[in-house]
Amino acid sequence: GAPDLSGRLEKPRVRFDDVGGMDAIKDEIRLKIIHPLKHPELYQAYGKAVGGGILMYGPPGCGKTHLARATAGEVSASFIAVGIEDVLDMWLGSSEKNLHALFDEARRNRPCVLFFDEVDALAANRSDLRQSAGRMIINQFLSELDGATASNDGVLVLAATNAPWHLDPAFRRPGRFDRILFVPPPDAPARAAILRVLAAGKPQQALDFDQVAKRADQFSGADLKAVVDLAVEAKLREAIASGVPKPLTTKDLLAAAALVKPSTKEW
Length: 267
Ligand code: ATP
Description:
- Strand 3, helix 6 and strand 4 (155-161) form a beta-alpha-beta unit.
- The protein starts with 22 loop residues before the first helix and ends in a 10-residue tail after the last helix.
- It is built from ten helices and five strands.
- Helix content is 47%, strand content 9%.
- A five-stranded parallel β-sheet has the order 2-3-4-1-5, sandwiched between helices.
- The chain has helices at 23-38, 40-45, 64-74, 84-92, 95-108, 131-151, 188-199, 209-214, 221-242, 250-257, and strands spanning 54-57, 78-82, 112-116, 155-161, 179-182.
- The chain is α/β, with parallel strands linked by helices.
- The protein is elongated and about 60 Å long.
- Bound molecules: adenosine-5'-triphosphate.
- Adenosine-5'-triphosphate (ATP) binds at residues 19-22, 60-66, 117, 160, 162, 194, 197-198, 221-222, 225.
């Protein structure tokens, strides 16, 4: 049946400041999405076409979804995240209508950032879908994307993939996902920035984020979140036992980092 899109619509409050590192990608998104919304007349003056999608690729857990959500937050737009399973469900429930309903829902709530995760899987061979079915889904998706772009109606499409080489070349045509942005595993300064964001608002004492970042080689953003979560849990246990909350220290973060395995090794 038709997927239930209610409850999917978010009004994110996270902003770019809540995303550590990723400076080059933020710049690109500012140029392609944020400034066109804020200064359409400037883009018109230079004859610069607005629209098309942005495709991000890189290892899991390095902030693609987080950044997409923050992009919506930056321009007070609505946000809908769609996984590949949703799209396949839509197809199994006759997705022509449903994929259209999804873009309609985005239009009704414009400006709206529509985020497709694992978009490459649309094009991949799947045992439960014949090749021709995959083709149909792709075509429907691309025609909705082209429609949103052509009408310039405030639906901004961001997509993410871990495997851009599986992506159908039709996605890459001009006006579609003509720009692919690599989202690398965070380097040491980016890791420090991410840790700072993750620890913000928690009781803390002169945290040396650079030192922790150095000991977190090849950690993804999600790994760093696990580090902060573990350190906070340890602190909570102490606080419950003693009845006194103590601030997070560098030592706490280092101890937690020693327990988390880096997940971006092969990248
Ligand atoms: P996936 O491909 O698995 O969806 P992803 O690249 O979309 O991975 P996210 O889901 O955005 O990764 O990241 C997982 C979590 O890690 C986020 O919810 C966030 O808490 C944290 N995180 C990741 N990157 C950052 C970052 N740059 N700044 C702050 N938090 C981050």
